[in-house]
Design goal:
about 425 residues, alpha+beta, OB fold (Dihydrolipoamide Acetyltransferase, E2P), five-stranded mixed β-sheet, 16 helices, 16 strands, elongated, transcription termination
């Protein structure tokens, strides 16, 4: 038999659709030329012909016909008496083209070639996969959940390549089931046992940046630039944006009419509060904006030590600090300054309090509005009143009030 069907004989060849055909043909040719060198000592007079479409392989041997007794190199020359056995019309000086039956190499050699080819193609597929995702670092991709483990989730992309979303790269409120499609950003490509491991992330600032780019055409077009993003995943994020076109309001463009653009991102990030602020080179103004939604009264800056003392009215302090201190922590990261918050005119650090709005993920909005209606804007202002007093002053049921107090009290105990 002078040829062999590669698809049937070498299964990996068939499965390597993501490798371009010219590269595959070079690999197959190289493997069989190695086989020829082992058997004949040289591959100079052999042509390995690969038909990538059909999966056929053919090896042709070229030798010059010489007079009997004048054969000096058996690989390059053949005696006239041997040549005419194949074709009576041959003459001295002509070239003899002869197909080599692969099974002449022996079963062991064929098996070795098959293993070598499978190994080479496997390496090629790894290299192609690594290069593909190295080029896509920082991009958002969609993938399907294949397996959920305690420390990570295994996902499959559209080509059934395996991707990893570690627990540390998931938003705390994330919960995924097998078969579900999720979006994440490609964070990095690691090598484990010489195999590429693609790591995804939903907590990286780049994930929020790309979501904004998708939702806000002005960012995609370069009219608005994202200067910096800081996040406490699932809790709060601050995005500093700048526009080089005076006609464009960067904050308004990012938020959209009635929050239409930002709402989809907030849902994707499991109700993460997103503060979009105008970037400025004025440090004092940047710190003031970074502490949003709180309103600052006065500020003292020390640019050498990168320290800021901020004074606010008592009812603004809890807003500046935020739930679990998230707001002020992110403001420090965004500005690069250590920020201390004080009550105006007292010069002492405010007792920790939390604005009720910070509990919007645990307490329904209408309940918060009802408490605010009777003057309870912060967690401590609610806890300072008894259940009976709250029941008398609001339209809330006793069970609802007790549940609200339990949620608020748990937050202070955790602190």
């Amino acid at each position: 038999m002078a040829s062999i069907n590669m698809i049937e004989a070498f299964q990996d060849f068939k499965d390597a659709e993501n490798i371009d055909r010219p590269t595959l043909m070079r690999v197959v040719e190289d493997v069989f030329k190695t086989l020829l060198r082992k058997k004949f000592g040289s591959d100079d007079n052999f042509d390995v012909i690969v038909n990538a479409e059909k999966g056929d392989l053919e090896i042709v041997r070229r030798r010059m016909i010489v007079h009997d007794g004048e054969v000096l190199d058996p690989n390059a020359e053949v005696a006239y008496s041997e040549a005419v056995k194949l074709e009576p019309d041959f003459e001295v000086g002509e070239e003899l083209y002869e197909e080599i039956d692969l099974y002449d190499f022996g079963r062991r050699a064929i098996l070795a070639a098959k293993q070598t080819l499978a190994s080479r193609i496997s390496d090629l597929k790894k290299n192609v996969l690594a290069k593909k995702y190295n080029d896509r670092i920082g991009e958002i991709i969609s993938a399907e959940v294949y397996q959920v483990w305690k420390k990570e989730i295994l996902l499959l992309d559209e080509e059934n390549n395996e991707l990893i979303l570690p627990k540390s790269e998931q938003i705390p409120q994330d919960y995924f089931k097998k078969g579900e499609s999720i979006r994440a950003v490609v964070k990095k490509v690691d090598l484990k046992n010489n195999s590429p491991v693609i790591i995804l992330s939903r907590t990286a600032p780049e994930f929020l940046a790309k979501l904004l780019e998708i939702e806000v055409p002005e960012i995609f077009d370069g009219l608005i630039t994202i200067k910096k993003i800081v996040r406490d995943p699932g809790e709060r994020a601050k995005v500093a944006v700048e526009s080089y076109d005076d006609r464009i309001d960067p904050v308004g463009a990012c938020v959209g009419m009635k929050g239409s653009r930002i709402h989809g991102i907030v849902r994707e990030l499991k109700n993460e509060n997103i503060d979009v602020i105008n970037y400025t080179n004025n440090t004092q103004l940047l710190i003031q904006r970074s502490l949003t939604p709180a309103k600052i009264t006065t500020m003292e800056l020390n640019n050498e030590s990168k320290h800021a003392s901020v004074y606010l009215k008592p009812d603004q302090v809890s807003l500046a600090i935020g739930r679990r201190g998230v707001n002020i922590k992110l403001a420090c990261e965004l500005t690069g300054y250590d920020i201390d918050v004080y009550r105006d005119n007292e010069g002492e650090v405010e007792d920790f309090d939390i604005d009720l709005q910070e509990f919007s993920d645990e307490i329904e909005a209408w309940v918060i509005e009802e408490l605010k209606r009777v003057g309870c804007d912060t967690a401590r202002s609610v806890l300072d009143l008894s259940v009976e007093e709250l029941e008398r002053r609001t339209d809330l049921e006793r069970e609802t009030i007790e549940e609200v107090r339990r949620v608020l009290q748990a937050e202070f105990e955790s602190e």
